[in-house]
């Protein structure tokens, strides 16, 4: 039985979807104002593993992720760069998915942009209004948390004392609110900022309402799993429950699952400490995306993960070893037939793997199952006992494990835009230094990767073939 720790109840529970054939899951997506960092990707890869394991268990899946494409930081930067909200967020959405794909994550069935769902958000706020959960102040609409008796049930926080929140998502105009924990649903338009003209007045949605509106639109008023990082439990997910259940009167989500923090070299990741990495920083230093994936999945999601460069080098040799193992197995010459010992190896590995992931997605144990399996199979290869049917079954098992982890196989490294640019810059420098051998070498490398260079009147441009 597949068991998951549910933040809402504080228990490890048997997982059973509402509809026995299809699991409906919502994952809070990125706020597209900058490149995503590896802490963000720990959560997205955890969600990817969860998604893949649900499919491994034989369910169909409907997985929805949002793109937050309107918020204070986005507006600030778009204005700075003289871009429309769409222009600014389109580029970072594209960068996000380049990274997402390079990390071997499967795209969700639906990716929904917040600014495409303003009418749904307005409707939801109006339902909350008619249920008595809101009030207006200075043109903004707020959620009165005192009107929702179960507020605090997810985060297990006590709201007796009105302690001001430490979250930067709390609306800055706190003097407008009756209670410091009340949160904004609809923000009145401010001078120079984008806004939508709606029944609620001119303004824009708060962050929390977007997830309630889009998840329920795509998945129904009650669905199976809602996932995200632990940093979202409060206030974001707590507020989502208040909004959704305050409007519908029905349970919103059945299983809340959260991925723990990522530490880097034993410390909280921060730009000031110099231990802050985007995925692209690591790739540009020559690290293998598949190894980054391996490392980010190597600790179970309910434990903090300490990401170190030494650990990443270790993951690189592990991933190489696994690929090498698969290649040797594929190329193995074998006699017809099958062997009972190999059936035993397969059975043990499959059971070990499934028991580990059934246990609240214990990825460390599931990877141990894969390594034990590879070791036993290596011994069998060395002993020459593998027959052709065995080889086929062994390879099928590798593929079935890999449908969950996606760390085997040749690494087809999708080249990121930033890397292409770095190579082009290096080539320009080489030409200036009259190092034509290096310049040609880079040109050939780019050609091989399907990158075409063009001299235009605006200078050197590149495109993909
Ligand atoms: Zn969300």
Q: Largest sheet, if any?
A: 5 strands, parallel
What is the residue-mean pLDDT, rounded to a whole number?
Answer: 92
The strand count comes to: 17
CATH H level of the largest domain: which superfamily? Answer: HUPs
How far apart the termini lie comes to 48 Å
- What small molecules accompany the polymer chains? zinc ion
Quick one: CATH class of the largest domain?
A: Alpha Beta
Radius of gyration: 25 Å
The CATH topology annotation of the largest domain reads as Rossmann fold
Q: Count structural domains.
A: 3
Précis, in short:
This protein is an alpha/beta fold.
Topology:
Blueprint (H helix, E strand, L loop, with lengths): L2 E4 L4 E4 L7 E6 L10 H19 L3 E8 L4 H9 L4 H18 L7 E4 L4 H13 L3 E4 L2 E4 L39 E6 L7 E3 L2 E5 L1 H13 L3 E7 L3 H16 L4 E7 L2 E3 L2 E2 L10 H6 L4 H9 L7 E3 L1 H23 L8 H19 L4 H20 L5 H18 L11 H16 L3 H13 L2 E6 L2 E6 L1
Parallel strand pairs: 3-4, 3-11, 4-5, 11-12, 13-15
Antiparallel strand pairs: 1-2, 6-7, 7-8, 8-10, 9-10, 13-14, 16-17
Helix pairs in contact: 1-12, 2-3, 4-5, 4-6, 5-6, 8-9, 10-11, 10-12, 13-14
The structure holds zinc ion (ZN).
Zinc ion binds next to loops.
Description:
The model is unreliable at 162-170 (pLDDT under 50). It is globular, with a radius of gyration of 25 Å. The chain has a 5-stranded parallel beta sheet. It has a 5-stranded antiparallel beta sheet with strand order 6-7-8-10-9. Strands 14-13-15 form a 3-stranded mixed beta sheet. It has 14 helices and 17 strands. It folds into 3 domains: 3-259, HUPs (Rossmann fold); 264-405, Orthogonal Bundle (Isoleucyl-tRNA Synthetase, Domain 1), CATH 1.10.730.10; 417-464, no CATH class. The chain has helices at residues 38-56, 72-80, 85-102, 118-130, 207-219, 233-248, 279-284, 289-297, 309-331, 340-358, 363-382, 388-405, 417-432, 436-448, and strands at residues 3-6, 11-14, 22-27, 60-67, 110-113, 134-137, 140-143, 183-188, 196-198, 201-205, 223-229, 253-259, 262-264, 267-268, 305-307, 451-456, 459-464. It is α/β, with parallel strands linked by helices and 465 residues long. Helix 4 packs across helix 5 (207-219), helix 8 crosses helix 9 and helix 10 packs parallel to helix 12 (388-405). The structure holds zinc ion (ZN). Zinc ion is lined by residues 28, 211, 236.
